[in-house]
């Protein structure tokens, strides 16, 4: 069933999950604890699984014969429509956890809403994802509290990481004509409706972590239109090089 | 002519590659078996979105049925309704415990899960990390016998 709007929406959701998974994988063998290595790779695996289902669905609704691999490995930077927040460099562990908190507190109400999508395939993917991102939010919450309400050094670095990624979170709640059409059809979640949960969840965690809500009004944006930050090209180069150097390669 | 019951009997020998004591039926991921003449359709559902065992399970299903003389096999994957550990059979839970993995409790009772040590049976246990060797397990330790163990998370 060809449906360009639904295809593009699934591409946005799939790119968010794929790019975040790739960033998390950069922590492999570099985490502060062995258990944390395992935890981050588990989170990345969930996200990679979600992105595989979403990109497969995006390809099916596009109707041009592209599969998940074509979409993940053979598109260039301006063709990716993930939010800029997920592509930001990891920085230190505190900054990574700040990013995880901001993304997961958005993903939970997003997938909850999409469980009721009028697109049955998207609703089925949401039914799996919603259980997984609940873990992701718990994980990020416990680290942000532990580091924020930890030592003087961990508090400073947690606040610094949060300040750096914070402005990028607001792109997640932007609307555009595509979303307006899909919300009207009952396919997509209305991004503005996700923000109250996100706000209260994040502010509650930050209060417990003795961290301040950043006050900047700067709101970078453009990921959904293919505009990305400088580091994104390097991420894609690493992610795509094997597939492009050896087309059709399999394990 | 193959019957669905005969196919299910063969599939009882197809196990989770990560937890070889559990068949796909015990695990609750075998959704349906339909026989249409010579054509057999086996429907499965993944545990977690990214479960890397799914590809292997799909190929194990084809291999097992082909060895039993069923050549025309189609394995379908469905996502909805989403898998839950509540679909794991009682037999599966017993086998898990004997294998040294604490089985999942009922999902609705999970606000503060009480997990018994599969080694000594003590309830004096604590979670070390929500994430273990596979997505579906968490890592615990027993405060009585001091042994670490895996717990299959209620999901």
Could you characterize what this model shows?
- The complex is a heterodimer of chains A (251) and B (155).
- The model of chain A has no long low-confidence stretch (mean pLDDT 97).
- Helix content of chain A is 66%, strand content 0%.
- Chain A starts with a helix and ends in a 6-residue tail after the last helix.
- Chain A has one domain (4-214, 221-245): Ferritin, core subunit, four-helix bundle (Ferritin, Up-down Bundle), CATH 1.20.1260.
- The radius of gyration of chain A is 18 Å and the shape is globular.
- Chain A contains 10 helices and no strands.
- Chain A has helices at residues 4-25, 34-62, 68-73, 84-87, 93-114, 120-148, 152-165, 177-184, 191-208, 232-245.
- Chain B is of the alpha/beta class.
- Chain B is built from 4 helices and 7 strands; from the N terminus they run ααββαβαββββ.
- In chain B, strand 5 and strand 6 form a beta hairpin.
- The chains are: A mainly alpha (251), B alpha/beta (155).
- The A-B interface holds A 35, 38-39, 42-43, 45-50, 52-53, 120, 123-125, 127-129, 131-132, 135, 138-139 and B 46, 48-52, 78-83, 128-133, 135, 139, 155.
Counted up, domains of chain A total 1
CATH topology category name of chain A: Ferritin
Overall pLDDT confidence of chain B: 91
What is the overall number of helices of chain B? 4
Task: List its salient traits.
heterodimer, A: mainly alpha, Ferritin, 10 helices, B: 155 residues, alpha/beta, 4-stranded mixed beta sheet, 3-stranded mixed beta sheet, 4 helices, 7 strands
In short:
By secondary structure, chain A is mainly alpha-helical. Chain A is built from ten helices and no strands. Chain A has a single domain (about 5-215, about 220-245), classed as Ferritin (Up-down Bundle).
Task: Write the topology of this structure.
The complex is a heterodimer of chains A (251) and B (155).
Chain A: H1 4-25, H2 34-62, H3 68-73, H4 84-87, H5 93-114, H6 120-148, H7 152-165, H8 177-184, H9 191-208, H10 232-245
Helix pairs in contact in A: 1-2, 1-8, 2-6, 5-6, 5-7, 5-9
Chain B: H1 4-11, H2 24-27, E1 30-36, E2 39-44, H3 53-67, E3 73-77, H4 90-99, E4 101-102, E5 125-129, E6 137-142, E7 148-152
Parallel strand pairs in B: 2-3, 4-7
Antiparallel strand pairs in B: 1-2, 5-6, 6-7
